[in-house]
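Quick illustration, no need to memorize.
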Amino acid sequence: MEAEQILAGLDPDQRAVAEATRGPVCVLAGAGTGKTRAITHRIAYAVLTGVIAPQRVLAVTFTTRAAGELRGRLRQLGAPGVQARTFHSAALKQLSYFWPKVIGGEPPTLIESKFGLVAEAARVCRLSLGRTELRDAAAEIEWAKVTQTRPEDYPASAAKAGRTPPADASDLARIYEAYEELRRERNLLDFEGMLELTAAMLTEHQEVANQVRDQYRYFVVDEFQDVNPLQKLLLDVWLGDRDEICVVGDPNQTIYSFTGASPAYLLRFTVEHPDAKVVKLVRDYRSTPQVVHLANGVLAQARGEARKHRLELVAQRPGGPEPTFHEYADEVAEAEAVAKRARALIEEGVPAREIAVLFRINAQSEPYEQAFADAGVPYVVKGAERFFERAEVRQAVVLLRGAARSADDGEPLVRSVRDVLAAAGLTDRPPEGRGAARERWESLAALAQLAEDVAADRPGAGLREFVTEIEERANAQHAPALEGVTLATLHTAKGLEWDAVFLAGLVEGTLPIIYAEKSPEQIEEERRLLYVGVTRAREHLALSWALARSPGGRKGRRRSRFLDGLAPQSSGPPRVDRSKRRPVSSGPQPCRVCGRPLTAAIERKLGRCESCPADYDEDLLARMKDWRVAASKEQKVPAYVVFTDATLQAIAERAPVSEAELAAIPGVGSVKLERYGSAVLALCRGETPQA
């Protein structure tokens, strides 16, 4: 392929990326704007114009699937020698190569999961944690390691970051320390340690750094908004004092801050590299104008810092149906309606694998699994067992390899594959019902569908090429799409797209999730989750919520605040009028959301159950916390002496307009009312308190 051919077909902004082959480059790419196309064409153009040799390029991304896609596109563009890897894959390769030369001895064994070692560490500390708590403890240790937090510093760092550990922070620190001791004793290495050790090796051994920097002189980093401090440290060591780096990301799709990822590196790239070229990609080629309009509407309501960095997408596709909004009495009715609509779409010609149901947490999957099974609609739960590790897939690959050795290159690929898969159990029609037999059939059918896709893309491909395709996909864990509706969380859906998307369970307490109420920043990340969900849809988009969890239950739920101004008025319970004081009752104080009697002190202070969704002005709470910090410094007392977090939350939720309303909030009292009342009421009015 000629260099000029690389630029053909790119829009002006994509072409600007491709032609920016030198120096630091920052690409701010909105959802569906062709960022992978832009960066692969940039690499290929640089290679074909002689700017850089392909073996000197390292393209870094976050998943093996994305790395495999980059390699595939670069091969097609005439740059097959480019290394496209994940951070972990690149680090492991370097560590394995240099270990015998600069460290010596038995190399450590890489552990895929921390769970078993964390469980053992908890037992060593004589702490009893359930399976869920152990999983959360492992996640906390991962967060601590990527943010370079030592065990003894964990309690303070976790408190500062607003973390919610599954055990007391000091106990979690003990588990973390015991985990590290066990890991070192057994010569084990986790993924975070692998990055840290690679960075240390390059820092401490100049000859290693020189060799790596001579090998890789040209860097491209995808999904840069998801980089964590440890990955940034390794990237800086790779780069040294050079500036041949192109980063690509979208601050509007920052949804992994709970793992330590930070969009700050993307947003401050031009501070670190003042001469960087910045290109924005906003032309959306994925979604219809109707879907794009809703996506822009979601971000238009962003608050605080997030509002400054939003990208306004411009739709490029023809028009389609308007997104729909549906309210249901309960979750069962919601799931049944979604399954019914999905079945109708399939009957209209939309393939089942081009339909997805997305929700906030894994626990929401169950009613949809039941509803789709009852409706006879095939479905796949994303995040379940890896496709290429399934017994029937491994058996089929063995049979395909054997057949490829004696294959006739002139035989049609699809027929050859189906003949082999028939021996493994593939039939023309799926077995009835669900269960192991149906799942086995769907796995084999996915391989048959992949053969059809390969034959369509490469008409001359034979069985040998197909086996190579499978092996490359297995290495990258790039599974073929199963012929079923995808059920997935919003987090696992990032980077994917479907013709039709159902966003389900959009209620307060779930989206935003209840524990996000701790800070305005967390609320904004939840808003971005909804944005990610909306932008997964190409054409059909349905958003729904249920007023009760179970049939016959109290309809006390409220639709997600993120839909305000975007969806028709809900018939659910209205938002609380915080300007009206609740009448005094002689009985137990009821929750103002669900009506349950409140017994815990913190619940009585908040006026609601801790698990019930809150409705308050996030900006007001943030302003009050800033004011509290200033007041505590002036009076030389801890912040909680001024007001506790629970009291500030209660004030933000009720937004009192008079001293009487403020005094009625538990935790205020006459002394604090006299000392702080005027300042708090001024904040509630949106004013700045007098000094």
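The longest strand covers residues 537-548.
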